[in-house]
Amino acid sequence: MITENQIQQLIQDNKNHWIKDYKAIVELPSVSSQPVHKPDIEKTARLAATFIEKIGGTSKIFTTKGNPVVWGRIENNPLSPTICIYNHLDVQPAEKGQNGWNRDPFVFTQEDNKFYARGTTDDKGPAMTALWAAQIAKKLQIQTNIEFIWELEEEIGSPNFQEALDQIKPLTKANSIIVSDTVWLTPEQPAMTISMRGLIAFEITVTTGGKDLHSGLCGGAARNPIMELAGIIEHCVDPVTGSIKIKDLDQTYNAPSKELLDEFEKSGFSIAYFKEAHKIQKLRFDNVRDITAAIWAKPTFEVHGIVGGYTGPGNKTVIPNTATAKVSMRLVPGQDPTKAFELAKKHILNYCSDAVIEMDHGILKPFKATTNTIENEKIKQAIDFGFGKKPVFAAEGGSIGAIVPMSETLEVPVYFMGLSLPEDSYHGPNESFQWRQIEGGIKSYVKYFELISK
Amino acid sequence: MITENQIQQLIQDNKNHWIKDYKAIVELPSVSSQPVHKPDIEKTARLAATFIEKIGGTSKIFTTKGNPVVWGRIENNPLSPTICIYNHLDVQPAEKGQNGWNRDPFVFTQEDNKFYARGTTDDKGPAMTALWAAQIAKKLQIQTNIEFIWELEEEIGSPNFQEALDQIKPLTKANSIIVSDTVWLTPEQPAMTISMRGLIAFEITVTTGGKDLHSGLCGGAARNPIMELAGIIEHCVDPVTGSIKIKDLDQTYNAPSKELLDEFEKSGFSIAYFKEAHKIQKLRFDNVRDITAAIWAKPTFEVHGIVGGYTGPGNKTVIPNTATAKVSMRLVPGQDPTKAFELAKKHILNYCSDAVIEMDHGILKPFKATTNTIENEKIKQAIDFGFGKKPVFAAEGGSIGAIVPMSETLEVPVYFMGLSLPEDSYHGPNESFQWRQIEGGIKSYVKYFELISK
Fold first, then answer.
1. Which chain A positions have a beta carbon within 8 Å of B314's beta carbon?
2. Residue B284 carries which DSSP code?
3. Among A317, A340, A359, where does a domain finish?
4. Which of A35, A218, A305 sits opposite B311 (nearest CB)?
5. SS3 for A193?
6. In which element (H, E) is residue A304 found?
7. Does the predicted interface ipTM exceed a cut of 0.85?
8. What is the pLDDT of residues B15-72, one digit of tens each?
9. Considering CB atoms only, which of B217, B293, B316 is closest to A304?
10. Model pTM score
11. Of the residues B315, B331, B359, which one is the last residue of a structural domain?
12. Tens digit of pLDDT for each residue in A116-152?
């Protein structure tokens, strides 16, 4: 049986050069939503592949008509089972001085035991953690084989992931997948994900004329596209409660059961920590049941961006001719994304027949994990070993596009071992990752590899 | 009695050098909303003053803590009445290649008998027309005295006009004011304005948190400022019909009477020409009564610009922390702008107590002209002389900030003699003015000076 000290010693031996590798990969601005960063995506894939080779694995970069996917394998014993760990190496957009970033998002900095930069926690840090655990497992001659799938399109909804997966399928020997891109409940409470919401994203544009109009000469009789867009939003969702008003959408899923909400209530979810971590002053609800139901077990209709008309200094009393909103809907297990989009589209056009609705994101299906297997128990044991506390089951409100394709194409179970903390600013400014999560994560992985190998 | 031929001859004699002066003043980019153009504002004032001196008048430039106001007087007979003509010499912003401008907005060009550039019609062209008419009146020894008030802050709501007006008051001998900054109904139908709408403008900002949030982690429980702003808009106005929903606002004015709407219907307003002139495909209403009521005799709630969240390419599934809308309300005679603003504010805060509402424009009071005086009849006669067609009474949906202060401070009646056509693109791209409007305008003014002098 591997001891914590053995692992600790190897972590100490490697820490310095690991952090150099971590810095190198984090400083590549692999922003998948911005075509200008395509070269950085390619560089990231190549650098990641060398990391796998460096610790004695084999790697392959699968190209697609979008971004590549890196696959790698560390074979410790051909007769032993194989764990495949999924992470993504693309990141959300970020710019210094914008949206709360007071650092350069692509300069890796360390303060005490915390690392700052875009991608430190979502999801390059967790990817490196699993890689370093594999290095230690190899050194300690743990017999489990370890594979990696590192995607570079997660943040844009994995539109070409299936294409790479079809190439990986003949090569992989994975018996199960571990996805490492989820978040704990609090810094003291690890979580294991039991479900993820799906996602559809689209743009709504209302165009009412050929040019800006004088609001004195035409105002009152001329249509106003910003106001009609506001009307569409209010027609689809109650802006205050978030309750969705799209006709028949409530027929497409089951409201969370009393039993599920009981579980959520007992999960250790802390309203105070949740608000502090996300810098939220006021939530829509004030009790754990309503909040967790809203973020984990109910669909959403969310507007991410809106623009129209004059937005410079002062005012300009024109009636603009067009306005656009970027929208998404999170979907819960049971909901069919295509059906949900059709209902939304119909509902919007029913209000404003001139609206143009364009899907601009891959469809992500919602996912429900199996929770009663022996592997679940072993993951719990491993996390307890790494962090001194067993994880609780919790749902995840986000979406990872690769999960359903992996589960369906590779026909293996998908488990979760998230390492990020809510305060790490997933998708937010001044993103960070803490050394204690890396260290505990390495220990958990090594222990899990050992538990599986028996 | 002056004949049309006498005037025509003098127009022909002067046309060439007049157009040079017109070009010179139009090519000064006197954009009052952009501080960078302050020197152009000053140059415009000085050039305009020389124009008055050149035809034998005296001029004075009154400074304010904002832009100056040019005042001038041509004294033809100290015992005769004085007409004071108001125009403004500042213009709306314009940039080549933007918002439909396919010309350089500050290069004066002539095509056939049409002049193009920002300010040709709003309002430098009409100002020059009145000036040239005064030159002819002097030459023909018409006994009426003529004054000019040329403002340089009209396009930003005349915030410092009162300061200049208080300096003009002891000097002016005006018995009435003519405002020349309004628009005909069609190229064949001159109009005399009987009322103008007032204006209040403000910004509404909703801020819900300290930073962008991950819509998967927080979506459902976290407030969405864009959606709440959309809710505020929908709470204030029906986005489709434009009908205002602000509580008690309907108590602050009288709905247009059947008699007034009858008059509007007979005014010669053409839906087809209105749509063509403003490049509007579809209006909120399809009949003259509803359309003219909406643009002339009812208040509006209009959103001019909105911005919030991610507006770059693709999508970014964040919940932003703030969103802002630029709004104005046009007000009809009888409405008190301060009261209307208070009602709007209360109504908005009632929906969203976190909304921040900031007035960002001078208050413009609505105005109702007197229509049953002898001067009205003489203006009608003069326009018939100049254009061969009597004007109809029509309301104006826009706002001219100087009108109520002039009427109240100088205690004289205000009349209107507009010369612009809807197709001339007031505030829009490729602004223009036609020679036929200048020529007819000169004839009308000269005739009016003669009619008044008797």
1. 33-34, 156, 360-361
2. S
3. A359
4. A305
5. strand
6. strand A300-309
7. yes
8. 999 999 999 999 999 999 899 999 999 999 999 999 999 999 999 999 999 999 999 9
9. B316
10. 0.86
11. B359
12. 999 999 999 999 999 999 999 999 999 999 999 999 9
